[in-house]
Amino acid sequence: MPTTRLLHSAEIPQADNLANVRRVLEALSGGVTEKERISEQTGISLRHVGYALAAARVLGWLGDDGASITPAARELLATSSGSADERTHLRRAIFACEVVKEVAPDLFEPAAPTREALARRIFRFTAGIGKETARRRAQTLLAWRSQVLERQLPLFPKRPRKRGAAAAAGAGEETAPGEGTASGEETAPRR
Length: 191
Prior knowledge:
mainly alpha, two-stranded parallel sheet, globular, single chain
């Protein structure tokens, strides 16, 4: 879906870490409104506090005054950090974000867009942005994607073999070159 307007560079987020955006929102919800104090309270550099505030704005979590948080931000903060519920709120905000809709409508497709494809769209639809900056902002959107997708456990997790059971069960079995034993030692193939 091509954009119908030219975006401004400040609209394209560059805060990779959504946990930092949350920490800045927590500071704002506690009444801290000056960037310097937010930086001191959170331990996030002043520059990155600015990035987090810009991300909060485009995600609909920052009020028009730039210092208050929205009801959607309060809902996010009511979730446990790192929880599936938090990821649901983050995903919902990113999915609803107008900028994401315009430059990365395929962000949550099973096959993620490439960094270069996103960078080309950002470069094409954003006024005064350089190609390297567009690549950097594409990296942010892909970082957001990876942070909010459900954590999926492997279908067949690798389990370490028990030393005694492996020895009894595999007395005549060979170990492939480069494979380790239960103790982590690499073994040579049997001859």
